Sequence to fold (229 residues):
Amino acid sequence: SAVISQKPSRDICQRGTSLTIQCQVDSQVTMMFWYRQQPGQSLTLIATANQGSEATYESGFVIDKFPISRPNLTFSTLTVSNMSPEDSSIYLCSVEIYRGNPNYGYTFGSGTRLTVV
Amino acid sequence: TQLLEQSPQFLSIQEGENLTVYCNSSSVFSSLQWYRQEPGEGPVLLVTVVTGGEVKKLKRLTFQFGDARKDSSLHITAAQPGDTGLYLCAGAAPDSWGKLQFGAGTQVVVTP
Fold:
């Protein structure tokens, strides 16, 4: 299955600033997914990023706050804009494991732990 | 949004004991996946179940998918400290095309 390199692994940011998180996949994938995991909680899907088109955002998430780029089939970025302490979370990217694989599912990056002060 | 209720939220057991984690919903899923997440890492896929009534075994872990494809369970036999982690179930709704709905997670702690 695909291997994802995500960076930075953690950051501490001032409120009002922006942080861009990068995900690099070692193979070409059609869709990449961005999740948020707030402290002590489960994963919530932010958006789905397809190459060549605008990302599709889930309810409660907007492009102005979480702009996403998907310049090619192996790379995507998520920016957390105009940050506030409520944005402190772990952000994860994910790609699909090939559907023909008996263990079809998703591979995740190791996450970016963001603290906003 | 299809809700997945996962229970219990927290489980602390001694090495060698058995445990079961449950994942329930009122909605049907086309597939259901179980992940384990350790601190500082992303979730790692353990298994995917797709057929109602399906049972899969992964060493000491047994996964079941309900006949109606609305619920699942994870049973660990003779738990070891290495089984410690956050266990997450995640369901893919029909026609969701890649979107997963995650349960709240069960934190399992196995002490020697």
